[in-house]
Amino acid sequence: MVVTRPDFYKNFKCIADKCTDSCCIGWEIVVDRKTREKYNNITGDFGEKIRANLVKDEENATCFKLDENERCPFLNKNNLCDIIINCGEDALCGICTEHPRFYNEFSESIECGLGLCCEEVCRLLLETDEPCNYVTEIVPEDEISIGFYLDESVHEDYIAIYTLRAEMFEILNSDINFDDKINTLKKLVEKTIKEEIVFDSDGAILARYDETEPINSEWTEYFNSLKDNICEYLEKEKPFDEATNGNKLYSKILSYIIFRHLSSSVYGDNAGLKEYFNFCISAVRFIKLCDIKTYCEKNQLTLTDRIENVKRWSKQIEYSDLNVDLLTFDE
Description:
The protein is an alpha+beta fold. It has helices at residues 33-40, 44-52, 82-87, 94-98, 119-126, 155-172, 178-193, 202-210, 217-228, 230-235, 237-244, 247-261, 273-298, 303-316, 321-328, and strands at 2-6, 54-56, 62-64, 101-106, 109-114, 134-138.
């Protein structure tokens, strides 16, 4: 199997209780059939506790029953997993084992990445301004523990996207300034699709994001503050740029968002290359607006701040199929 992964992929390890966030809070945790069968065979009080905390969701999928604070019932007070403590990592369900990994499957190839909803992934991406590179290699099929969806009909389209992205990564890894990189990417995509691209204004980006389904009340409060004060923040963009020098970091963020999302255009029913490209450009612009907001409020922008802003965007947008569809829909 031909596999493409970011160069930091193998360096990832969950930091568990050291994380300031938790993927075991606020997320629906679906338990796959194989794991349910395993849980049916766990004896004693802990086995009974597991089975007592399995419920059906609206789509009849089996999930863990979250508590009143939306915590997984097996996330203990020290933010460690009682299933791992009592039964070992092999007892985790598929989603808990794989998260925050993602997989994009294309006939003879598969792309693996790590979701930016995880602060440790964001740290690995942003802790240096060295370019992010993507490694393609042949690995045994049993190294990637998911089922492959082999759709031969998209193979040629995927190869075209793979080749186009390689050119885009080279541009993003270059030393030219970020605005020139964006314009160069725009011309490259326009040449490919033989159509002019018009990027959304900041106002249009915020208007589109305002239509997305909020992940929680914290997002709504944050977004409204950004939207209501955007004129004030934009007045500080030039001193922000001079103080923070984000050229290389925004290049890395855009590169990674392109890696995850641009290839989805080969499967798009309502969205193609232009729509997914615009989605990527708008995403990195939105993240920058969040960084400017932080800078205006704190008079600084730390690595921790950058991580928080990328993570917030990822959890709200790219971890909601509904929101991604909304933002890539061809109107």
